[in-house]
Amino acid sequence: MFDAIFSLLVLLQIKHWYIDFVNQSEEEVNWKGTYLDWRGVKHSFKHGLGTTICLLIVTGSGYLPFCIVLGLVDFLVHYHVDWSKMNLNKRLGYTIEMPQFWALLGLDQLAHQLTYIGIAWAMI
Question: 111: which DSSP letter?
């Protein structure tokens, strides 16, 4: 079981890096703060789909409903974490030159990582 959880966490880290830092378009970034705009939804959907795929790799297709539910959880949490971060930055006037911006970005990333730990815990 430990090997499966460790493997899942590694896959989720790679998935997160790729979708958040390589595959995210400027359009997705610019619209994550507008609630239910399809461009922000698309970004979080990619995360949910990626999480579902990571779970399927680790658990196998016999757990498809379980994997879809946890992928949906990741989609919903990711969406609301990103939306909250974008709106807090806007409301508080944080810019990339300010330490507060980076602290909030770090909090955003921490929330995503804790979500992955929760998803891994659900495998137990």
Answer: H
Q: Which domain holds residue 45?
A: 2-122
Residue 98 region by backbone torsions, left for phi larger than 0, else alpha for psi between -120 and 50, else beta: beta
Tally of structural domains, the chain: 1
Note the pLDDT tens digit of each residue in 43-66.
999 999 999 999 999 999 999 999
- Calculate ∠ Cα 59-124-113, nearest 5°: 85
> What would the two tokens of residue 67 be?
């994997």
Of 108, 104, 52, nearest in space to 75 by CA: 52
44 φ, ψ to 5°? -70, -30
**Cβ atoms of residues 40 and 79 within 8 Å:** yes
